Amino acid sequence: MSKKILVIEDEGKIARWVRTYFEQDGFTVLLAGDGPTGLTLAQTEQPDLIILDLNLPGMDGLELCQKLRRHRTKAVAHVPIIMLTARVEEADRLTGLDLGADDYVTKPFSPKELVARAKAIFRRLERDADPSRVFKDGDLVMDVEAHTATLAGHPLELTPNEFAVLATLLEHRGKALSRSQLIELALGHDYEGLERTIDVHIRHIRHKIEANPAQPQRIVTVFGVGYRYEGL
Ligand code: CA
User: Fold this and answer.
1) Per the structure, how many domains does the chain have?
2) Under DSSP, is residue 214 helix (H, G, I), strand (E, B) or coil?
3) Over 60: is that where the pLDDT of 193 sits?
4) 3-class SS at 45?
5) Do 106 and 139 belong together in one domain?
6) 131-135, 188-192, 222-226: lowest mean pLDDT where?
7) How far is the CA of 34 from the centre of ligand 1 (A)?
8) Does 122 lie in the same domain as 142?
9) Which of 44, 61, 93, 100 is the most buried (most CB within 10 A)?
10) Are residues 30 and 42 in the same domain?
């Protein structure tokens, strides 16, 4: 069965253009021209991925993204989202906020690139579904397939991006990873010019897993390179 893409975009020309490219690649495409319609379709159709424009009538992309992530239906709450934004600085700011979008694409964009980003997300999800990916370090346990992380038996509250970054570090335990490697391995694409957002994720993760975040023992900084999962 072909994967279903929901495009929530009020500019009809862009929406139809995106649809054409995804359809050429064998995807099924649904279109919504405003936020409320998009939210309804996300619930009733349960698409495999959502392309979400930031500036929308009715309900903007930010609000809609948050509503989806908090949705009581798991399939809706975990649907991959690619945000379309008008400016690079906007994408930068949004990544820092970590609203739960999986990727950001800046307008004007190439629809081919958008399809490639979507495929990268699907590849990452398939890889994450590999049941062998359970990582342990002392009292820290991550089960990638179940998408759970616990510390001393208590659930760790990690955003989707933090989860992916921590799982990647654990998977490459003992090996120094550069920021761009981490972005590519964890987030499945190249956040061009946004490498410092990894630092934000690491800071948040350290606060959640390190006994003393100011003197991290698990995730160590490798000066001039990036980070390494050292472990306890
Ligand atoms: Ca728009």
Assistant:
1) 2
2) coil
3) no
4) helix
5) no
6) 188-192
7) 9
8) no
9) 61
10) yes
Residues 211-227 have pLDDT tens digits of 999 999 999 999 989 99
Of the residues 127, 146, 169, the one at which a domain ends: 127
Per the structure, the complete domain to which residue 44 belongs is given by 4-127
Quick check: pTM over 0.90?
A: no
pLDDT band at 192; cut points 50, 70, 90: low
How far apart are the CA of 76 and the centre of ligand 1, in A? 22
How many Å lie between the centroid of ligand 1 and the Cα of residue 66? 18
* Model confidence at 189: pLDDT above 70: no
What is the 9 CA–ligand 1 centroid distance (Å)? 6
